[in-house]
Amino acid sequence: MDHALPDFATARAMMVDCQIRPNKVSDPRIIAAMRRLPREAFVPAAAASRAYADEDVPLGGGRYLMEPMVIARMVQAAAVRPGDRALVVAAGTGYGAALLAECGAEVTALEPDEALLAIARPALAAAAPPGATLAVTLVARPLANGWNANAPYDVILVEGAAEQLPPALTEQLRAGSASRAAGRLVVVCHADGVSQAMLGERVGDALKLQPVFDCATPLLPALRRAPGFVF
Predict the structure, then answer these.
(1) How many angstroms from the chain centroid is the CA of residue 8?
(2) How does residue 3 score in pLDDT terms, banded at 50, 70 and 90?
(3) Is residue 186 pLDDT above 80, yes or no?
(4) Residue 122 to residue 129: CA distance in whole angstroms
(5) DSSP strand E in 28-152: where?
(6) Residue 1 burial (CB < 10 Å; 0-12/13-18/19+)?
């Protein structure tokens, strides 16, 4: 019996028109990128049919590809400018990093899980425009120390929910100056059973966070609360 191949192009268009645009995502760069990027390449082959659903897609090991609307709104909140230096923490299979690169950022994608990196490498190569490469550098290191080699960052995106943030991330976020705005950090904060996407700005040596929208993003195992920690 013949089995029809999934129509990913149609699914991609429906994702944008039914999930992204109606949910306050108006940045044309993000809309164009999500129409083009093959989201099915950023999940295990067995989960490809779920790539465009309005849900987080399990990647194994307690990790998920974030719901399309949530990652789109987080990238929009980051307000990327062309040439911004960006760090994606818990980059997973690279979809959020690809979105930032499509918006003009130079992206460092920090991910310690080799199984996820094995998906990310070919996915990012397949997502590149013809004759070009995406400005994404994969770094296989633990999350707690961030990646100081390319700091300071104009944008830090944590691709998942956190109960605590490594202090290194605030330290690696660009401090504001007379000539350049302070860096922005976007993360889903989980506290007391409630998850909210938050936008942070470095003020001196501290991170000032404000809520952007509610969501139900799964916790990143590496960013669960340590005993006695309060967000």
Answers:
(1) 21
(2) very low
(3) yes
(4) 14
(5) 57-60, 63-65, 85-89, 106-110, 136-139
(6) exposed
Contact criterion met (CB below 8 Å) for 3 and 49: no
For residues 159 and 96, the answer to whether their CB atoms sit within 8 Å is yes
Q: Are 84 and 105 in contact (CB under 8 A)?
A: yes
Tokens standing for residue 148? 């100081």
Q: Is 119 helix (H, G, I), strand (E, B) or coil?
A: helix
Cβ 168 vs Cβ 145: under 8 Å: yes
Residue 75 has pLDDT above 60, yes or no: yes
- Report CA torsion sign: 18, 50, 13, 134: positive
Q: Which residue has the higher pLDDT, 229 or 126?
A: 126
Residue of 16, 54, 8, 7 lying closest to 35 (CA atoms): 16
| C-beta atoms surrounding 12 within 10 Å | 20
Sheet of 184-191, strands arranged across? 136-139, 106-110, 85-89, 155-162, 184-191, 194-203, 206-214
pTM of the full structure? 0.93
Give the integer Cα–Cα distance in Å for 169 and 184. Answer: 11
Three-state secondary structure string covering 145-168: CCCHHHCCECEEEEEEEECCCCHH
Tokens of 194: 């409630």
